[in-house]
C-alpha cells in the first residue's frame, strides 16, 4: 500500500468515526442520513463500474459482467434513493444485507489467505465475523430504529478502526531480480 493510500485510509477512517459519533448523538436524523449515504454510495459505485466498463473493461474478457454489475448497483442505488424517506425497512434490509455479504466475503478471503500462508487472515476473519454479527443484531432488533442506529454506528466505528489499523500495517514488497 502506498503512502497516499495509507493517508487516505486514515483520513476516511477518522471521518467515518466522526459520522458514527454524530449518528449516536442524534439517531432520529441519523437514520435518514444513513439511508441517503447508502443510496449515494450505491449510485457512485455503480457509476464507477459503468465508466470503467466504457473506458477499459469492454475490451477485456468478462467485461460485460462488470457492466452488468455497474448497472445493477446504479439501479439499486437509484431505487434506494427514491424510497429512502418513506421505507425504513428497505433501508434496513440494504444495510443488513450489505453487512452480511461483506462479512461473508471477508471470511472467504480469510480462509483463502490462511491457505496461502498470509498472516493477515486473522484480521480478515475478525472483520468478517464483526460484519456478520452486526447483520444478526440488526435482524434481532428490527423494530427499534434507535437501537439499529446505535448498532450500525458502533459497527462503523469498528470498521473504521480496522481500516486505520490496516493503514499502519507493513506490507510485503516482492522484488523480482
The helix-strand sequence is HHHHHH
Helix content: over 70%
How many helices does DSSP assign? 6
Quote the distance from N terminus to C terminus. Answer: 21 Å
- Largest sheet features: none
Q: Helices and strands: which structural class?
A: mainly alpha
Please tally the β strands and state the result: 0
Give the overall shape, derived from the CA principal axes: globular
**How much beta, percentage-wise?**
under 5%
* Structural domains: how many: 1
- On the 0 to 100 scale, the average pLDDT is 83
Rg, Å, rounded: 18 Å
Low-confidence stretches: none
TL;DR?
The protein has 177 residues and is an all-alpha fold. 82% of the residues lie in helices and 0% in strands. It has helices at residues 3-25, 27-55, 63-83, 88-116, 121-140, 145-168.
Explain the overall architecture:
- The chain is mainly alpha-helical and 177 residues long.
- The chain has one domain (3-167).
- The protein is built from six helices and no strands.
- The protein has helices at residues 3-25, 27-55, 63-83, 88-116, 121-140, 145-168.
- The two termini are 21 Å apart.
- 24% of the residues are buried.
- The mean pLDDT is 83.
